[in-house]
Recover the amino acids of this structure.
């Protein structure tokens, strides 16, 4: 009986030691973080590559996966050197609302919420941008606006690295709706809106 008790005590101590050892091993194994993994930092010298540079350009004549830009209208706003007159995909009411949000973020600081070129940065002394409601821009093709957003125009920088392709088109759709809202004739309005106008006069 005494021997059995001693054996059980030894087993308990051994089990406790094993459990503690396992926990210690797990704790050591869990300390691996992203910074501890082998990697190449940007611009770090690396003898594996030509010129011993870790930063590499894409291989010649290759296209990153999912980036084959075969639709000129969608990605350049032009076809055969002419600005496209129509949007490369259909625009929904939800698209216009999203375009308004993007416009408010990226365009309104300069162009203003109505497109008149009186945004907050202009009020702080910066150069006034073109009024989006002037005849020349109201008659401009959507592709013209896409080209300007992508490549910049005058003192406006390129937004290609800030606004995704699809979002640029939605901003343009909202700009076209904004222009229409500032210049629509009464005959183009739905009857309910005409009734509201007449009620205010």
């Amino acid at each position: 009986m005494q021997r059995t008790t001693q054996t059980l005590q030894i087993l308990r101590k051994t089990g406790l030691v094993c459990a503690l050892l396992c926990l210690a091993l797990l704790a050591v194994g869990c300390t691996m973080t992203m910074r501890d993994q082998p990697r190449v930092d940007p611009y770090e010298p690396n003898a594996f590559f030509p010129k011993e540079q870790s930063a590499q350009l894409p291989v010649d004549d290759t296209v990153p996966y999912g980036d084959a830009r075969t639709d000129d209208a969608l990605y350049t706003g032009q076809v055969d050197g002419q600005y496209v007159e129509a949007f490369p995909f259909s625009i929904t009411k939800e698209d216009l609302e999203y375009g308004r949000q993007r416009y408010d973020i990226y365009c309104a600081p300069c162009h203003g919420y109505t497109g008149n070129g009186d945004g907050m940065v202009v009020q702080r002394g910066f150069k006034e941008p073109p009024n989006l409601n002037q005849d020349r821009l109201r008659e401009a093709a959507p592709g013209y606006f896409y080209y300007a957003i992508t490549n910049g125009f005058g003192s406006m920088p390129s937004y290609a690295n800030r606004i995704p392709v699809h979002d640029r088109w939605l901003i343009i759709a909202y700009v076209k709706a904004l222009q229409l809202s500032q210049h629509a004739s009464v005959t183009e309005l739905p009857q309910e809106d005409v009734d509201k106008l007449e009620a205010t006069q």
Summary: Residues 72-189 form a domain with the Cytochrome Bc1 Complex; Chain D, domain 2 fold (CATH 1.10.760.10). The beta strands are 78-79, 82-83. The longest helix spans residues 2-29.
